[in-house]
Amino acid sequence: MRYVIITGLSGAGRSQAVKAMEDMGYFCIDNLPPSLIPKLSELFTESKKIDKVALVIDLRGGQFFDDLTSSLEYLQKMNYQYEILFLEASDSVLIKRYKESRRKHPLAQDGRIIAAIQDERKRLESIRNKATAIIDTSNLTISQLREQLANIFLEGRKFKGLVITVISFGYKSGIPLDADLVFDVRFLPNPFYVDELKEMTGNDAPVRDYVLSFPVTKEFLAKLYDMLQFLIPYYVKEGKTQLVIAIGCTGGKHRSVTIANELYEYLRKNDYAAFVEHRDILK
User: Fold this and answer.
1) What is the model's pLDDT at position 222?
2) What is the Cα–Cα distance from 93 to 230, expressed in whole angstroms?
3) Angle 274-232-82 (CA atoms, 0-180°, nearest 5)?
4) Most buried by CB count within 10 Å: which residue of 30, 201, 219, 237?
5) Which residues are annotated as a binding site for GTP?
6) Read out DSSP for the chain?
């Protein structure tokens, strides 16, 4: 049985995560008091009728949330295998989401939202440290969140402990702030100066074929793959759960898109949970 506990910051997307997990065939229970986890675990194990379970545990449970640590200790003692998905987002994004939804933060009784968010971060720190997967939803659309969840929890896909996001961008619009690794591909031949390719993007076959036709591109990709094969296992060993790789060209429309797509396909073929985003392709 695959047993997933979903938790994290209020406003970080737990409700959307539950919907995605349900669509993947998980039996989901929202806002469960942690004290009930042991009994439910025994029930699911004995019935053998449910093989995928997702439980949402968060601070809406008030004082019941404090029982989570002891419940997890019980699961370990009884050799129940479980995973923890932790959802988070930046303070500014969380504040914006709460203002747009006009909902009240569970810890903001009469105080400011920012104080409640910071308090929640402190209270959840120990659980975050135990998480097997951490997803920062600050810059994710609902569909992008669903894809990342599918990469991790959909049966038939192997999760190696790291979610890798590949972003193409244009330097004239700035480097992505959350990038861990940045590669400048402005040295590659530019399709922008080929009349029939200028208005296309790296998602179009003619542009892709043009960029990949040069020996320098093939050599760069081979060296990039080799470096990532070396680096990624060490990131996982260190405990890193998210890696953002940014590929940049001048405008973010041709070369960076092509290389980002190639890197994404390479990572997927090697069973990494990968996602690709083209930030500036429409600019």
Assistant:
1) 98
2) 34
3) 70
4) 201
5) 58-61
6) -EEEEEEE-TTSSHHHHHHHHHHTT-EEE-S--GGGHHHHHHHHHHH-S--EEEEE--GGGGGGGGGHHHHHHHHHHTT---EEEEEE--HHHHHHHHHHHTPPPTT-SSS-HHHHHHHHHHHHHHHHHH-SEEEE-TT--HHHHHHHHHHHHSTT----S-EEEEEEEEGGG---TT-SEEEE-TTSPPGGGSTTTTT--TTSHHHHHHHHTSHHHHHHHHHHHHHHHHHHHHHHHHT--EEEEEEEESSSSSHHHHHHHHHHHHHHHTT-EEEEEETTTT-
- Give the length of the chain: 283
Please tell me the distance from the alpha carbon of residue 14 to that of residue 86, in angstroms, as a whole number. Answer: 9
Greatest distance between any 2 Cα atoms in the chain? 67
pLDDT, tens digit (0-9, with 9 covering 90-100), for 177-215 = 889 999 999 999 999 999 999 999 999 999 999 999 999
Q: How many CB atoms within 10 Å of residue 23? A: 12
Question: 205: which 2 tokens?
Answer: 């076959």
pLDDT at 86: 94
Annotated binding site: 8-15, 58-61
Residue 85 near residue 48, CB atoms below 8 Å: no
* Token output for 149: 């969840």
Q: What is the pLDDT of residue 88?
A: 95
220, two tokens: 């760069």
Q: Closest by alpha carbon to 273, among 180, 147, 164? A: 164
Low-confidence ranges of the chain (pLDDT < 50): none
**Annotated binding-site ranges for ATP:** 8-15
pLDDT score, position 67: 77
Which fold, 2-153? Rossmann fold (3.40.50)
Burial of 96: CB neighbours in 10 Å, binned 0-12, 13-18, 19+? middle
